[in-house]
Design goal:
Elements: E1 5-7, H1 20-25, H2 27-46, H3 64-75, H4 80-94, E2 97-101, H5 108-117, E3 135-139, H6 145-156, E4 168-174, H7 180-196, H8 205-208, E5 209-213, H9 218-225, E6 232-233, H10 247-255, H11 260-276, H12 283-298, E7 302-307, H13 313-327, E8 335-340, H14 349-354, E9 359-368, H15 394-411, E10 416-423, H16 426-447, H17 457-470
Parallel strand pairs: 2-3, 2-4, 4-5, 5-6, 7-8, 7-9, 9-10
Antiparallel strand pairs: 1-10
Helix pairs in contact: 2-16, 3-11, 4-10, 5-10, 5-13, 6-7, 11-16, 12-16, 13-16
Bound molecules: 5-phosphoarabinonic acid (PA5).
């Protein structure tokens, strides 16, 4: 398993950046935050009620990958992961499309996994080219009338379950079980599915609806009423945006035929580095330390995650939510921003190069493409003058763009750091998810902000419900 590497050399700048010494000096503080994170996990495991300033304490995500894997190795088919794999196999054999309904942490991780690890045109491929893996769509993450109806049109177009291509299923994810956006969409898709199933049918709603939810709540009750064959739990002590490596992300990934054991093993690998490596050589502590120092010392309150792959846009958006909901509290917290490059060099690039000096740019660089490099090649129509670059490949051009933009930032004394992913696969992604979740928690502990919970989200919900009831 190749490790991902965090290389922050581009932040070591005089006056506008920080020094390596400053990062090392922060070492004891970062190590204390790491110890606190471990102590939190112990307290949570022991079931101790959290202190008021640590409530909620959703530390359960930290060793979740180890726990899931240990259970799987011991109990195989009887374990939670064994059940996830069996349900994924069943769905793959039965249906051609799946809609995953959920919002925030209940879908962003699954979307990030799909986009990073599947064929970029997965849903457009024939069933054969997809290896019989279902097409996967996401909804229930908005109340956008036309968007939901567009997807309902697509799912309703075959009209019957007679043909394999016409068969579809729903995975509905809500930890609380009561989130309005997801619940409204679920009702629409459930009604459509019900009307599509002609009796007598070998398939029932209970076979084709797979809920992932908490131990109690409206979705749990609905799942019981529908007699759902498989119901999965969002584990206790794991908050929505920290749940990507629970059934919330694992079931959609397994349905897509991805290797979920490798996802978890990648996260375990990151946990080991986090616990054992010293500052200066620890991706979690170094990332948290660099981000913190740049914000505190240089006012870098905008954190640009500059992903150099289209397949990582959803991963960037997953991180946007993680940082924003975890540390955006008490009138504090940096602003996360995902840029997809080179695309956004032609939109945001100008501002990043010459705008307000309030940004730390973290490049996420994929070192090895999945496919053979595409060469520019010779052409008889050389009006574009590309024959001069005929032997260059797309990865060569990407590398030049990364080096060129980093040099331009450095020449103007703008800080950058690089996060190198050896390739885009499950192991790499598992490491990256765990690294950023741990770094967010460490930074929260370092600055005295509880990274868990999202009390601010309640205000809009209460107003929205009051308005709906009064009109
Ligand atoms: O991080 C979080 O906890 C939130 O973003 C939730 O995931 C989101 O609000 C959805 O909540 P639920 O899963 O209860 O529907």
């Amino acid at each position: 398993m190749d490790p991902i590497e965090y290389r922050p050399e581009g932040v070591f700048l005089e006056k506008t950046g920080i020094s390596r010494e400053a990062l090392l000096q922060l070492g004891p503080g970062l190590e204390a935050a790491r110890s606190e994170t471990q102590a939190d996990l112990k307290a949570w495991t022991a079931g101790h009620p959290p202190a008021p300033d640590k409530d909620p304490l959703d530390a359960g995500f930290i060793n979740l990958p180890e726990r899931i894997l240990a259970d799987y190795r011991k109990r195989r088919g009887q374990s939670e992961l064994g059940r996830v794999l069996a349900t994924a196999d069943r769905l793959r054999e039965t249906v051609d499309r799946i809609v995953v309904l959920g919002i925030g942490g209940s879908y962003m991780g699954a979307r990030a996994i799909m986009d990073a690890c599947c064929h970029p045109m997965h849903n457009e491929l024939s069933r054969g080219d997809r290896g019989s893996r279902p097409r996967v769509y996401f909804d229930g993450n908005n109340v956008d009338n036309d968007a939901t109806q567009g997807l309902l049109d697509l799912f309703g177009q075959n009209g019957s379950f007679e043909q394999p291509e016409g068969r579809w299923a729903i995975i509905v994810v809500s930890k609380s079980g009561g989130t309005l956006e997801t619940a409204v969409a679920f009702r629409q898709f459930l009604n459509l599915l019900n009307s599509t199933l002609k009796s007598p049918s070998p398939h029932t709603l209970g076979d084709l609806v797979v809920p992932i939810t908490g131990a109690h709540g409206k979705l749990h009750d609905l799942a019981q009423a529908l007699q759902c064959r498989d119901i999965f739990r969002v584990p206790d002590g794991v908050g929505g945006r920290f749940s990507v490596l629970s059934t919330v992300g694992l079931l959609p990934a397994a349905v897509l035929g991805l290797n979920v054991v490798r996802l978890l093993e990648g996260a375990v690998m990151m946990n080991e580095r986090f616990q054992n490596a010293a500052v200066g050589n620890n991706p979690v502590l170094d990332f948290a330390g660099v981000c913190h120092l740049l914000e505190k010392e240089r006012g870098a309150s905008t954190r640009v995650l500059s992903v150099w792959s289209k397949s990582l846009e959803a991963f960037g958006l997953w991180y946007d939510q993680l940082l924003a909901e975890s540390l955006g509290k008490s009138e504090r917290g940096a602003l996360p921003l995902t840029a997809v490059n080179t695309r956004d060099l032609h939109s945001r690039g100008q501002q990043h190069q010459e705008g307000v000096r309030d940004k730390l740019i973290t490049n996420v660089i994929v070192d090895k493409c999945r496919r053979d490099p595409l060469q520019v090649g010779q052409s008889q129509w050389n009006q574009d003058q590309l024959n001069a670059l005929a032997d260059k490949t797309m990865p060569d051009i990407m590398r030049a763009a990364i080096q060129g933009s980093n040099k331009a930032y450095r020449d103007d004394k703008r800080p950058t750091a690089d996060l190198h992913l050896p390739c885009l696969d499950e192991t790499t992604l598992g490491q990256a998810f765990q690294m950023l979740m741990l770094a967010t928690v460490v930074e929260g502990r370092l600055i005295g902000i509880n990274p868990y919970g999202q009390p601010g989200v309640e205000a809009y919900k209460q107003n929205m419900h009051a308005i709906l009831q009064s009109t």
